[in-house]
Amino acid sequence: QKEVEQDPGPLSVPEGAIVSLNCTYSNSAFQYFMWYRQYSRKGPELLMYTYSSGNKEDGRFTAQVDKSSKYISLFIRDSQPSDSATYLCAMSPLGAGGFKTIFGAGTRLFVKA
Amino acid sequence: DVKVTQSSRYLVKRTGEKVFLECVQDMDHENMFWYRQDPGLGLRLIYFSYDVKMKEKGDIPEGYSVSREKKERFSLILESASTNQTSMYLCASSSQGSRWDTQYFGPGTRLTVL
Which CATH superfamily includes the segment(s) B4-96+107-113? Predict the structure, then answer.
């Protein structure tokens, strides 16, 4: 069993839809949770990060962590064609920038105009 | 603007060749990483370095070596390339210290081994 599971998609939605992206994990030591966005032919870039449980909001994006269920989510409101990308969840027991970070396989998202 | 650059975007090599992938960061970061990215498998850590001349094996170091002679430069070496090393290779860097220091990635090198 992988430490981090993420549905690869692809997920196709119409412009303006609410998008829900999810990951599950098995290691209860994970404390730092991140979402990276990767456009085609580019490297991943950090989108959001949270520590422990709870919600964090940044504009149209909300990151949610449920440690009791070992489940994290990224919600995108009013999705735009420019949101079309691969979204990778990542998590670490030690810190956001460390070598213990484990990445999900990524979910490909297409937002249709 | 922070920047991680990689020497090549696309590379085609033959089985048995020695391959060098170069990565340079301009953020004075202590940590540097090499990952490979394959469909369905996500990013897997090959090697990382936390200081000049220091290196640690990641999850899949077999068939690879690294070199870090200067703080800003981290090289990945495939001693004898094989077809199963065909992949996207991503370099990243991060700063030690604050727990919120993120990893900054380069654009990647797509390597094909024939």
Answer: Immunoglobulins (2.60.40.10)
